[in-house]
Amino acid sequence: MFKIKLRDFGSFVALTALHVCSVLQPVVEAQANVKTIYPVVDRNLLLQVGYQYNHWMLGKSMMYSLLVLIGLWYSRHLQQARKLETEERRGILKDSQQLTAEEVKAEWLSRQRQDAFPMSKFLCFATPWLLTFVGSGLINYVRLYLVIQHFCVSNWRAIQLYGELHVLFLRRLLAVALIPYWSQFAGGDSLEEAAASLPANYISYETHLLD
Question: Which residue spans traverse the membrane (predicted)?
Answer without folding.
Answer: 56-74, 122-142
